[in-house]
Amino acid sequence: MNRQKLACLGFVLSIFAILSVTRVAAQDGLPVGWMKTGGKPANYDMTVDTSVKHGGQASASLQFVGKLPDGNTVLMQQFKPDAYRGKRLRMSAWVKTEKAEDRAQLWLRIDAVKNTPGFDNMNNRRITGVTDWRRYELVLDVPNETINIAFGAMSFGTGRVWVDDFAFDVVGNDVAVTDMNTPEQRAREVDNSWMLASKFPAAPVNLDFEGGANPVRKPVAINPKVLDDYVGYYEIQGFVGGVRRKGDALIMDSDSGSPEQVYPLSESEFFFKGAPGSLRFARDAQGKVTEVVANMSGGERHVKRIDLAAAKPRGEQIMAAAWKAKGGLDKLKGVHNIWHDGERIQPGQPTTTFDLYISENNQSFSENRNADGKFVSKTTADGKNGWTYDGVSKNAHDLARLTNSRYHWQFVWLEVSLLPFAGATMETYALDDGTFESKPVDRVLVIVKEGVKDGEWEGKYILHFDKQTHLLRRITATNPNGRTDYAYDDYFDVNGVKLAGLAVINSAGGKYSIKISNYKLNAGLGADRLATDANNNSPEAQLILKQEEAWRLARLNNDVAALKQLVSEDYVGTNQFGERRNKAGLLQLFAPGNIKILSFTVDQSIVRVSGDTATVNGEHTSQLSGQSLSHQFYTHVWIKRDGRWQLLSNTQFVDPNQK
């Protein structure tokens, strides 16, 4: 579970509600005294169930109602720790699950002002499959500095989970703790100072769910034209949320960066279903919407709207200075892909290493190794598909992971080039000045939109540039994986482009550093590493992919000797202009002083092998000297003679949808 999402009681789906509240607000339809949060809480209904229960008259039901098995939901409470300070606390509850693919976990967290002394979410003993009622226990120490205790249940499945009869009791030191925090996580500094003024209950309430459910608010009918006034972007605590209209519905970004609908209580006040409080759009004297006021039980919190028209000129000015400092816009546009090595360094953990490749077409490849340099895993995405290989099995990425990957890799590509992926658009808006590591920075909101309608997918990133050097120092963003916070330093020149030699990552799992070295620009990556099709896994197909990579490199490097070995004597090739060449013509074409390919990346390839013949159908993106990038489709025919695969023919044509 993302601890950031539980660190604040007022985290009610929306980015606008990350500000703290001081006591529990009633949430629509939920058991009294409980609240709902999580990665994708809208995918689940939480209700009081009187037909299925462990004891008494009722239990709590967490039922999946979404379309895609993405995210999770969390049922939670918080209370004052006075009765348990200096003691060992045991929490127990009864859990029942319905489906084989269900996954449930209980959780318990101990909060201090500046750290999290204890945390257990049963991630090492998950409740999976079809299970009848069973009692589970979590045990944590409650140190004297504790200011809050939070607890609850989570559901990750597509079925239904029931929980009932939570209980707390003090146990002796002979009962082992189940704390999952590492010493580093326990010592990691957080800011829980807001909890000191919070009016949490003195003890947990409605643990057996006999107290019933909160009433459900009903939306009212309003004039949908008023929704246009609310569309825009709003900033709170260094993160930006979007508000947009979809038909007659108003959509807001959730804490995970995904859209959620809000429902009207009036023309200016709205609420999230299953969330506490409400959100009111406030206007100035001229009637212009300037902020969202979050009306929580702890009072009002004001979220500023970004004036895009006023912020755009300054945003473009800041980006122009940043492009110039990094190497110049023309130089950056000439970076089509990048490769580098990395060392992951985290206090108390062995240093691990990895290789990383990323291209402007959202292609990526990463191979991870342990402290001994031994292979651990690799992940690949070709812009459309992705997979992970751990040395034993190869697993395709599902839709949710591919979506999350797009947010992340666009984030990385921004650091490399300060530009969006190919085919995407980018808008820049200046935010209020800030500081980073005690130095003044210019802050810019970058909005990347890629192949979507009505902004259904867009990445929102805040870039922090040093006011003197204009180099990127930090990026923050909200995405389906949670919040991302990267800092950059130790810049050096790579072929005229300034790239960071150090990245410092702050995440829910802790803070760690990455030392970056051996940058390579526009080196490309072969089909053997980007392949995702299952047919590409046979031994013969892997041999073909190695030959495909050799074919790519030979043309990229004008290696006539390699080409002579790769193609058969009866080779015939047809290019995108319909021109045919035999082997002699091909070798002449790539002789020094003739054609020169500046960049060449395989986007996708599918291998089919039948006896001594193989075909490869794929796509590649390349750029010839003096020409623009070209996306093309191709078919290669390989033939096996005397135990060796050679290229018999190739045909290619330009993507008809290419602009």
Write the layout of secondary structure elements.
Elements: H1 3-6, E1 35-37, E2 44-49, E3 59-64, E4 73-79, E5 87-97, E6 103-111, E7 118-120, E8 127-128, E9 131-142, E10 148-155, E11 160-171, H2 183-187, E12 232-236, E13 239-246, E14 249-253, E15 259-264, E16 269-271, E17 278-283, E18 289-296, E19 299-305, H3 308-326, H4 329-333, E20 337-345, E21 352-359, E22 363-369, E23 375-382, E24 386-389, E25 394-396, H5 399-417, E26 425-430, E27 434-436, E28 439-449, E29 458-466, E30 472-479, E31 482-494, E32 497-507, E33 510-521, H6 527-530, H7 539-556, H8 560-566, E34 567-574, E35 580-582, H9 583-589, E36 597-610, E37 613-624, E38 630-641, E39 644-654
Parallel strand pairs: 34-39
Antiparallel strand pairs: 1-4, 2-3, 3-11, 4-10, 5-9, 5-11, 6-7, 6-8, 6-10, 12-13, 12-19, 13-14, 14-15, 15-16, 16-17, 17-18, 18-19, 20-21, 20-33, 21-22, 22-23, 23-24, 24-25, 26-28, 27-28, 28-29, 29-30, 30-31, 31-32, 32-33, 34-35, 36-37, 37-38, 38-39
